[in-house]
Amino acid sequence: MTESRIQVYVDAKILGRNEPTPGKTSFVAFTSEDAKVQGFSSIEADQTDEAEMKAIAFAIKSLKNLFSAFTIMCDNESVVSQIHAGIVRPSSRPVLSEILAERKANPGVQVDFFGKNPAHSYLNQELAKRQKQ
């Protein structure tokens, strides 16, 4: 009997994303019911794609030494497409190169697209806790 692959859901949130001021406060989170792990961190990102890529990179860095194989589930189709294409251009975000290098070094790590994101509610819970402090 084969074990099912661990699924890890990632999400990112940029507070004040629609405000014209630079230097937004941004956060990323991952969660996996399969592996009973969660992670939350602040990041520097002003754009959604950049924040989602940083969420993926954060999850890979946090989990690569714990699990030999897992699938990162991301609800940003554009980001997943860029990772699957595996092409780094001069205009690409530096974090894309980092993700591609991690995937090459850790062949058990996959990234897939999906629609409904359980990490979204975990990220909102963590942000709500911090806003109460």
Structure notes:
32% of the residues are buried. This protein has 4 helices and 5 strands; from the N terminus they run βββαβααβα. The mean pLDDT is 90. A 5-stranded mixed β-sheet has the order 3-2-1-4-5, sandwiched between helices. Strand 2 (25-32) and strand 3 form a beta hairpin. Helix 1 (48-63) runs parallel beside helix 3 (94-105). The chain is α/β, with parallel strands linked by helices and 133 residues long. It is globular and about 40 Å long. It has a single domain (6-126), classed as Ribonuclease H-like superfamily/Ribonuclease H (Nucleotidyltransferase, domain 5, 2-Layer Sandwich), CATH 3.30.420.
- Would you list the SSEs in sequence order as H and E? EEEHEHHEH
Q: What's the number of domains?
A: 1
Q: Name the CATH class.
A: Alpha Beta
What is the CATH topology assignment?
Nucleotidyltransferase, domain 5
